[in-house]
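B., you asked whether I could sanity-check this one before it goes into the benchmark set. Here's the sequence:
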Amino acid sequence: MQLGISVTHSLKLQHRKNMSDTPAASPKSDRASANIRGALLVISGAFCLTVMASIAKFLGASLPVPVIVFMRFLAGFIILFPVVWRYGFINLKTDKFKLHLLRGGIGFLGNVAMIFSVVHIVMADAMTIQFSRPLFTVFLAGLFLGEVIGKQRAGAAIVGFIGIIIITRPFGDGFNIWYLSAVGGAVTATLVILVVKILSRTEPTIVIIFYFTVITTVLGAIPALIFWQTPTWTELALLVVMGFLGVLGQSLFTHGIGIGETSFVLPFDYLRIVFGFIIGLIWFAEFPSAWSYVGAAIIVVSSYYLIRTERRK
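And here's what the prediction gave me:
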């Protein structure tokens, strides 16, 4: 009996020694873990948003784009409503309604432009041009916010625009007028970001999202009524899934950016281009041209450079 107690005591001492010899988790390892989790969330969000765009492309073969856009915004509003209810409608008061209206109007036009482009051109090209936003941000921020551009950032943006020209080929036989819709979507998305920068100085995030959802839903209802076509039950189910994936994708992306270092996790959002290539090939039998690959590489590299330089500022 005494021997058993002695052995047990010795094992406990050895266990304590082993535990004391084990190094504690360092802040560096914690940061790495947060980056990995953030990257996984961003990748998941990118996949959800790409599938959402794919459903829009699929539905575009049978439903008018204005109906798709309206139903997407309506689904987002319905999903957001319980959150706003808990937040309290009295807390939604704002003295920046004109800016909210501007943001909603521009955002509505941008969504219409992007869905038109996804429906009518190769999906991978539409996704790639969507990621040219940092290129437009450089010049629009300098024009409207008075930010100093600098030679290196201006040079990177110009190189990126060359990538857009390579993809769209505006002077060749492969040009499709709907490429301009994709470019317009990227420009309006950039303008939305600039307006949100101004709003976020005084407005809570939930207030910005609420007014955007309401305004875009109301604006979307007008053309939807003009071009209305009642969806089948299958189409309606896909529209609901599309709206849900939009909210889920944005939430995953936002949370991923929040828990990880932005400079590390943000580039993983460019996997949307890869997902776009894969889904376009498998679902829609789309084969991007060699020019698309070259242009995509140029846009991704130049945009990534601009993001990194922005983080160092």
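One thing to flag: Residues 44-312 form one domain. Otherwise nothing jumped out at me.
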